[in-house]
Each structure stands twice: as C-alpha cells, then as structure tokens.
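From the methods appendix. Each design record in this collection lists the tokenized structure first, followed by the designed amino acid sequence. Records were kept in a plain field format so they could be parsed without special tools. The example shown here is representative of the layout used throughout.

RECORD:
FOLD TOKENS (154 positions):
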C-alpha cells in the first residue's frame, strides 16, 4: 500500500504544510481542493471535515490507509470534529496539534478538542513552519514505515 496516512483537519489546520515538512519539501501554501495522493499521504481538503455531507469520503478513505492523523489548529477556538468522530475509523488514529508556536495558541484547548473527537492515543504538538516538535512525529512516521516494510516482506 503506497498511501499510508490520511490527513484530516479543518481548512487552514496545516495538513499540507505538515506533509511538506515531513517530506523535506519546500513549504508553500496551496489550497487543497480535492483528495491529493502522494507516496506517503492522502491530504484531504478541510471542507471534507467542515461539511458533514463529505464525512463519508473521509470514512471510506480511512479504510484504504494504515493510519489516520487528525489535526487541530492550536489558534482556533472552534473544533470541527464531531464528538467521537474518529471512533468511526478502524485504523489507528493519532492527534496532531498544529501552530503550537503562535502567540494565540492554546495547546490545552486543542488537546481537549482532539480528545472530544475521540483521539485516545498519542497527541503531537508541532509547528510545521518552524520545525518545532516535528522530530517526535517524524520518528513515529519512521516506525510506521519500518513496520509497513516488515509486513510487506512477509
């Protein structure tokens, strides 16, 4: 399976920037209009989370990846994830708090939103623009990739 991780978050949550940072690409903003596929990620438009009529697309795509990463912008005082939304996914889910280094960021509120969304496991606070907090998430990604290679060679 080429696409290992589905990125889900509201508009402007930092999904594309995070993907670019983890793949050592130049950081450039470009509004994601449709599901974008790369060798590691499926990047979803924020509208797919913000508009309930598109939930089925996220749920369907979640079955085609190894892990789901749900992103919450730490500068937002609103959460677009319905309560326990991630419990509809069969595959592992991790939470990512983005924009952790912004002055108006509230890591506590962002974590609360992710927990309400149903994230039970690890939550990684990061700043994709500065790189702060990226290393633990990059290590998680390396483990995921190594485990995937092990299972493919069997």
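DESIGN:
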């Amino acid at each position: 399976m080429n696409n290992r991780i589905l990125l889900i978050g509201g508009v402007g949550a930092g999904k594309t920037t995070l993907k670019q940072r983890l793949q050592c690409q130049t950081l450039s903003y470009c509004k994601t209009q449709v599901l974008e596929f790369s060798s590691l990620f499926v990047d979803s438009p924020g509208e797919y989370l913000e508009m309930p009529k598109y939930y089925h697309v996220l749920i369907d795509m979640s079955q085609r990846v190894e892990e789901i990463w749900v992103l919450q912008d730490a500068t937002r005082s609103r959460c677009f994830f319905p309560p326990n939304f991630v419990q509809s996914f069969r595959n592992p889910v991790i939470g990512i708090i983005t924009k952790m280094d912004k002055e108006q960021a509230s890591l506590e509120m962002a974590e609360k939103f992710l927990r309400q969304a149903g994230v039970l496991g690890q939550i990684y606070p990061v700043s994709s623009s500065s790189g702060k907090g990226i290393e633990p998430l990059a290590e998680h990604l390396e483990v995921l990739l190594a485990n995937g290679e092990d299972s493919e060679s069997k």
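APPENDIX NOTE: The mean pLDDT is 91.
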